[in-house]
């Protein structure tokens, strides 16, 4: 019974992998948001800078130069701090993205290798060999079963179809 | 009496000046011919250039000119080259005209006033011009290099622009109406073949027929302007000197092969799927 659904198992695995692949950017950004908890601090800094700028615009530079300059220096300092913060956050995001991608590709490779290992000698499905002539050997590779559909062929076909389907949907 | 003498002296001096100018002009013109001969490959120590040999040299000279025009056409590279002849200030003449052509008593130069012509010739020392002429092929090589470098820079910019969009969707295949038609046709054919045809022959025979039909039908569908994707491969091919036309054609063939492969995958997948569904329902046994 289980052997009868091998084609579906492979199809489902390929579909999940492709779906995960399309969702990778959102997953990595979600994870980086989870990891970084000082996003609030950043927004606070932004608000503070805005306020200071507003205050600065209300001051006359000619009449209150000292105050104006002090405020200017404060704004510059805060902006530099924010820049450093944003830079570190971006670097961390890139790192997270890289890690998520690596993990995903390792998992995908492991899944594919295990599927190939499992169905190396068994075809995922069998049809009469005359139906798929003259390429029955190619289709049956690596099983060698006449009329069988080999895992490699089925993986390639599923991958292409799922990619097309997901592209049409998105 | 004095006035007549002075007048004679004046006319004498004017005529002497004119004579000197004439001699100089002739000398310059002779020089330009010599240079012309040097360009077309006649050595100085050859027996004095007779008319026949000069005539034989003429077509080669024109060929050289044409080639120079090809390479120094402004469309090939907008960058002002330091090798461009300075005498291009002679307005009305194309940049591509060589100094020799301007200096030579050829018909198109007769339009210029002789004073301007002499000035332009006087501005350039002989050595400079000779070096320009001799440096023709390095000039070409340099221009070629510059144009390729420009191409590389453009491609780099294009790649940098395209990268973010490719990151968003790794497979930027666009579904034009013909593509959708092909995919739907493949699905319908697979179902039809599974239900009716496959008992008698291979499933790939109807598929090949369908592909032939698509080839014929493709001209009845509106041509969609497909944006040529600039990949690292195309950039490398372009930089290695393969013409863009050849690359475009190969990419087009590659795309068509990709389309056929996608059709085949969809067809086979639908066939297997319908086969499995029919098996599941239990209506048929293979």
TrEMBL record, chain A:
InterPro entries: Get1, Helix_hairpin_bin_sf
Entry's transmembrane regions: 6-24, 98-119, 139-157
Pfam families reported for this sequence: CHD5
Main location: endoplasmic reticulum
Gene Ontology cellular-component annotations: endoplasmic reticulum membrane; GET complex
Keywords associated with the record: Coiled coil, Endoplasmic reticulum, Membrane, Transmembrane, Transmembrane helix
Gene Ontology biological-process entries: tail-anchored membrane protein insertion into ER membrane
Membrane topology: Multi-pass membrane protein
Gene Ontology molecular function: any one: protein-membrane adaptor activity
Locations listed in the record: Endoplasmic reticulum membrane
Family: Belongs to the WRB/GET1 family.
Listed name of the protein: Guided entry of tail-anchored proteins factor 1
Source species of the chain: Betta splendens (Siamese fighting fish)
Lineage: Eukaryota, Metazoa, Chordata, Craniata, Vertebrata
From TrEMBL, chain B:
GO cellular component terms given for this protein: endoplasmic reticulum membrane; GET complex
GO BP annotation list: tail-anchored membrane protein insertion into ER membrane
Matches recorded under InterPro entries: CAMLG
Locations listed in the record: Endoplasmic reticulum membrane
Transmembrane segments: 187-210, 230-248, 260-281
Keywords assigned: Membrane, Transmembrane, Transmembrane helix
Transmembrane as UniProt keyword: yes
Protein name per the record: Guided entry of tail-anchored proteins factor
Lineage: Eukaryota, Metazoa, Chordata, Craniata, Vertebrata
């Amino acid at each position: 019974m289980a052997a009868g659904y091998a084609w579906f198992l492979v199809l489902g695995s390929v579909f999940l992998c492709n779906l995960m692949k399309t969702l990778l950017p959102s997953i990595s950004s979600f994870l980086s948001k989870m990891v970084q908890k000082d996003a609030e601090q950043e927004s606070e800094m932004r608000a503070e800078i805005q306020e200071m700028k507003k205050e600065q615009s209300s001051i006359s530079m000619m009449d209150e130069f000292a105050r104006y300059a002090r405020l200017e220096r404060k704004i510059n300092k805060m902006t530099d701090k924010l820049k450093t913060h944003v830079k570190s956050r971006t670097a961390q995001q890139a790192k997270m993205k890289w890690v998520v991608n690596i993990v995903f590709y390792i998992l995908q490779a492991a899944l594919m290798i295990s599927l190939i290992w499992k169905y190396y000698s068994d075809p995922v499905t069998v049809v009469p060999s005359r139906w798929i002539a003259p390429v029955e050997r190619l289709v049956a590779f690596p099983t060698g079963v006449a009329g069988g559909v080999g895992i490699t062929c089925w993986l390639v076909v599923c991958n292409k179809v799922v990619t097309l389907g997901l592209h049409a949907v998105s | 009496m004095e006035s007549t003498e002075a007048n004679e002296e004046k006319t004498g001096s004017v005529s002497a000046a004119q004579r000197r100018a004439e001699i100089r002009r002739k000398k310059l013109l002779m020089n330009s011919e010599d240079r012309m001969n040097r360009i077309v490959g006649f050595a100085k120590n050859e027996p004095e250039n007779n008319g026949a040999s000069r005539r034989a040299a003429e077509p080669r000279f024109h060929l050289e000119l044409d080639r120079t025009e090809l390479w120094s056409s402004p469309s090939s590279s907008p960058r002002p080259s330091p090798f461009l002849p300075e005498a291009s200030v002679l307005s009305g003449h194309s940049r591509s005209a060589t100094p020799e052509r301007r200096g030579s008593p050829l018909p198109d130069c007769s339009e210029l006033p002789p004073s301007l012509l002499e000035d332009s010739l006087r501005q350039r020392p002989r050595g400079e011009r000779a070096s320009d002429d001799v440096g023709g092929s390095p000039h070409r090589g340099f221009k070629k290099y510059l144009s390729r470098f420009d191409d590389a820079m453009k491609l780099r910019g294009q790649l940098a622009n395209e990268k973010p969009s490719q990151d968003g969707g790794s497979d930027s295949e666009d579904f034009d109406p013909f593509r959708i038609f092909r995919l739907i046709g493949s699905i319908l054919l697979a179902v039809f073949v599974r239900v009716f045809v496959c008992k008698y022959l291979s499933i790939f025979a109807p598929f090949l027929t369908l592909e032939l039909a698509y080839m014929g039908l493709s001209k009845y569908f509106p041509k969609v302007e497909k944006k040529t994707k600039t990949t690292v491969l195309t950039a490398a091919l372009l930089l290695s000197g393969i013409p863009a036309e050849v690359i475009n054609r190969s990419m087009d063939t590659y795309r068509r092969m990709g389309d056929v492969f996608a059709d085949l995958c969809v067809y086979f997948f639908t066939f297997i799927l319908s086969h499995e569904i029919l098996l599941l329902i239990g209506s048929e046994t293979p």
